[in-house]
Amino acid sequence: MKLLEERILEEGVVKEGNILKVDAFLNHQMDVKLFREMGKEWKRLFADAGVNKILTIEASGIGIACVAAEEFGCRVVFAKKTQGKNLDGELLTTQITSFTKGRVFDVIVEKKFLNPGDRVLIIDDFLANGCALEGLIDLVQQSGAEVVGCGIAIEKGFQVGGQKIRDRGIRLESLAIVDSMEGGTITFRS
Amino acid sequence: MKLLEERILEEGVVKEGNILKVDAFLNHQMDVKLFREMGKEWKRLFADAGVNKILTIEASGIGIACVAAEEFGCRVVFAKKTQGKNLDGELLTTQITSFTKGRVFDVIVEKKFLNPGDRVLIIDDFLANGCALEGLIDLVQQSGAEVVGCGIAIEKGFQVGGQKIRDRGIRLESLAIVDSMEGGTITFRS
Question: Could A86 and B23 be called an inter-chain contact, meaning their C-beta atoms sit closer than 8 Å?
Answer without folding.
Answer: yes
